[in-house]
Structure formats: structure tokens, C-alpha cells
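Protocol step 4 of 6.
Sequence for PHP-like protein (Methylophilales bacterium HTCC2181) entered exactly as in the expression construct, tag removed. Do not edit the line below.
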Amino acid sequence: MITPIIDLHCHSTISDGLFSPTELVKYAHSKGVQVLALTDHDDIDGLPQAREQASALGMVFINGVEISVTWQKRTLHIVGLNFDHKNYTLADSLTKIREGRDARAIKIAHGLGMAGIMGALEGARSYCKDGSVGRIHFAQYLAEKGHAKDVKSVFKKFLTPGKPGYVEHVWADLTEAVSWIKGAGGVAVIAHPGRYDMGAKLYPRLMNDFKLAGGEAIEVVSGSQDPSQTEYFAKIANEFGFFASCGSDFHGPGISFRQMGQKQIIPPNCKPVWEKWPDIKKLTQSNHKDIY
Ligand code: AMP
Ligand code: MN
Ligand code: MN
Ligand code: MN
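Step 5 output, C-alpha cells:
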């Protein structure tokens, strides 16, 4: 049996990805992905379109979202998987987060204006096809205008703490975000835990708070964290009784270095999050060791 490629984290034009939900599913299919979750930042509007395309291609599709959260004054991302996308509380809460995003975009443009960069809001909007303006859209515009050589360098120079286009922002509360996901019947997952750089004391505190809130999984394998971190997060997952999830965090060719369809391995001592989902479990029952 050919082991399926599972990708439970990626983005479309509904947030800061380059492909529309339909294009993204087609692209994932062309890269060999068989089980896909679309996880746009604070937005679930792409799910029906993506599901339709996935079904036309015979792929398994999982509803997803990546919620921006503030915990201990830090921004974290919580992925929600396999929820009812018609749940009112979830949809309404995400709308409120996006309103905050829009207000933040005005402040980012103001900061950039103070640094002599004019017209950044309109410029960022021109890169934002369907959803709310995020930092990537500013980065694309600033790179186009030659303020730095590429998106990554724009982040470094303008959009990270201490830089002119960085704005402190209060996102959703961790416990609330988990409760919206669970209330809609889904599983809450800490996205790319290796990105937060919190140290040996804070990580267990986060895991503890997340568990108390009802969180059930962490991304042990992510295109957004170094593979050398897998072992540490596999250990944490087992210590706290979390399921392990995995995903590319793909945004589009050129916009991020993460690729789709690359094989990454969930350590055999972890319980994959799809053990909770009979459809996928069936696909993977031969051996989950070499699935990603
Ligand atoms: P936002 O939610 O608008 O603050 O933007 C966060 C998004 O920006 C992340 O999901 C990534 O897609 C992207 N991002 C963050 N840091 C970087 C970086 N250093 N280089 C490229 N993209 C980044
Ligand atoms: Mn993003
Ligand atoms: Mn993220
Ligand atoms: Mn992401």
C-alpha cells in the first residue's frame, strides 16, 4: 500500500497564501497530498470551495483554521481541525479577530509612513485578494518597491518587533480560541511550537494552560520549524498526552520556502491526530511511521 501524504496546515488567498482555495487543492493533489486541511489565518471562508475541489479529485479534506492568539504577551497560533464550519460562535469570533487585523493594518501603514514609506496600506491591499490584510501583504508590497530584496528581508527590516512597521496587537485569548474550536466539534492544535523560542520553563507552562483549556494536539512536525526540534516536541506531546499533528505551513511558491508533499515523519512513539478520525485512520492503518 502506498502510504498517504497528510498535510494539515496550509494557506490560500483567503489569508496570506498565493493560491485560491481551489488552486491550492489542485496544487496539493499534484504534489501527491491525499489528506489536506486548509488552515487560513482567522478565516474559514475558503473551506466550502476547497472541499468541493478535494472531493472532485478524490482527496480527503479536513476543515481547518489557524487562529491568532495572545498568551503571556506573545503571539501564538492555534490550529483548529475537523470542526463544523457552520458553527456560529466560531465564525463570529473569527470575524471579530479580522476586524482587529484591519485596525492593525492601519497602524502598520502609519508606522511605515513615519519611516518615509507612503501608500503602504493601499499597496498591501493590492496583494490581498480575498481576506484581511496581514504582514505578508505589506512585505510583498515593500519588496516590490525595493525596500528590501525579498519578503523575508522585509520582515527582518520592517515588520518584526522594534522595527517601524511592527505593531503590538492583542489577538484572541488562548482559552477562548480553544473553546470555539471545541464548541464547533473540532480539535485544537498548537501550530509550529518550535517557532516560539520560549525556553524550557515557558514551554511546559504553555502546554499546561493549553491542556487545561481543552487543547488536544501539537504540531510535532511542521514546515515552519526545524526538523531537529521534532524529538523535543514528540517528548512534550507524550508527556502531556497530546496527539501529534503535521503540516507544511505552505503559503505558495516563492512566498515561503516550505514545500508541499515533502515527506516528514511523525515519530513512531506519537499518536497521530488522525487516530481520532476513522476515515483517515483507515487510509493509514498499514503503518503510520512513514507518513507525514
Ligand atoms: P500576521 O498574522 O499578519 O502577523 O502575519 C504572520 C505571517 O507572516 C505568518 O503566518 C507567516 O506567513 C508570515 N511570516 C512571519 N514571519 C515571517 C518571516 N520572517 N518571513 C516570511 N514570512 C513571515
Ligand atoms: Mn501566514
Ligand atoms: Mn502560523
Ligand atoms: Mn500557518
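Step 6, annotate. Residues 6-94+171-286 form a domain with the TIM Barrel fold (CATH 3.20.20.140).
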